[in-house]
Specification:
With 364 residues, the protein is mainly alpha-helical. The protein contains ten helices and two strands.
């Protein structure tokens, strides 16, 4: 289609140049100026049709213009058909070549048959000049003269039509083979590009997996040109993101467990009257608990005997006890201590042997 449109443009340009060359011949003849005007308008119309993509219509109009330009002077001759006008019939073969160039292949023979019919009709219907009448004496009859004068242009039409048909068919086949070769080359190039893109995409996927396996959880698959690989990469990015969340949750859980162990040890130290070492906040859910215990738990000042050990006194001060019952420094302990713990007054209460001795918080 593009090739035919380009050929039509060149033909229109060539016919326009020929019209400009022959324009001085029409300056003194009204009929010639009219014919030239019709031909120029036809060329403009053909150019517009070709520009809009109607290549067959433009080619048909060019064929009609060429036939009109050749047969017009012959038909309009005021002295009738002469021997000098008969070569115009041969020139009609040009329209067959134009049809072969711009129109489908079956149109070649249609134009050739139409030209043959126009040649026969013009020879039979147009008045003959005296020189044709004189030339008829050279033949045995008028029929033989007509056959002798018309066989050459008609045969030329048929020969040009057949040659043009074979030429155009071979050209079309060559063009199709060239197009097929270009298509095959393009497909091979496209296949090579797709293979290269696939290899690059797979390499990027492998690099991201290696980085992630080595601990770089921030690695992500970049956007790819291949839509299928990009779908795989997007799914892998989503998977890595979710797995990173699970990994962070596992780290937080492990830190929470470690902090819980240290917090339990600190609480145990605190319950036994020793100065606890509270864990430092590390961003776990136990941080508020640690902060509360640090603010609420007082330092031990005095405890009952045996709570922190028999020989321990805070700040190396003399041992003191809460004001519950008799002071241990002035009265001896009961005989069965620690099975019985002093209660209110002098009445001891039994102690459960399965539980440790009762503890008392240091007084504030």
């Amino acid at each position: 289609m593009t090739r035919r449109s380009r050929l039509a443009s060149w033909l229109i340009l060539g016919l326009a140049a020929s019209l400009m060359i022959l324009l001085p011949l029409a300056s003194s003849n009204v009929s010639a100026r009219f014919a030239f005007s019709i031909f120029a308008i036809g060329l403009v119309a053909a150019a517009v049709l070709n520009r809009r993509g109607y290549i067959s219509a433009a080619g048909t109009l060019l064929v009609v213009l060429i036939v009109f330009a050749i047969l017009g002077p012959t038909i309009a001759s005021p002295i009738g058909l002469t021997m000098g006008l008969l070569p115009n019939y041969d020139a009609l073969a040009v329209s067959v070549l134009v049809a072969a160039t711009l129109l489908p292949r079956p149109a070649i023979f249609l134009v050739a048959f139409a030209n043959t019919a126009l040649i026969v009709a013009d020879y039979l219907l147009e008045p003959h000049n005296a020189n044709i009448t004189i030339d008829a004496k050279l033949y045995s009859s008028a029929t033989m003269q007509a056959v002798s004068l018309l066989v050459r242009p008609i045969a030329l039409e048929l020969i040009i039509a057949v040659i043009s048909y074979l030429w155009i068919r071979g050209t079309d086949q060559a063009i199709r083979r060239a197009d097929r070769a270009e298509e095959v080359a393009y497909m091979r190039q496209r296949e090579a590009e797709q293979k290269r893109e696939l290899e690059e995409g797979v390499e990027q996927l492998l690099q991201v997996l290696v980085l992630w396996a080595n601990g770089n959880t921030q690695a992500r698959v970049p956007e790819m040109r291949d839509s299928l690989l990009w779908r795989v990469g997007h799914a892998l990015n989503t998977f890595i993101g979710r797995l990173e969340q699970f990994t962070q949750a596992e780290v937080v859980l492990r830190h929470t467990q470690d902090e819980a162990v240290r917090l339990a040890a600190a609480i145990t130290e605190w319950l036994h009257g020793r100065a606890p070492i509270w864990p430092a906040p590390i961003g776990t859910p136990l941080d508020p608990v640690i902060a509360t215990l640090r603010g609420a738990a007082p330092e031990p000042t005095s405890m009952e005997p045996g709570f922190y050990g028999d020989n321990w006194t805070p700040n190396n001060q003399p041992r003191s006890f809460p004001s519950r019952g008799p002071a241990p420094t002035s009265q001896p302990l009961p005989p069965n201590y620690p099975n019985n713990v002093p209660g209110s007054g002098d009445n001891p209460r039994p102690r459960n042997p399965t539980h440790p001795p009762e503890r008392f918080w240091p007084p504030e």
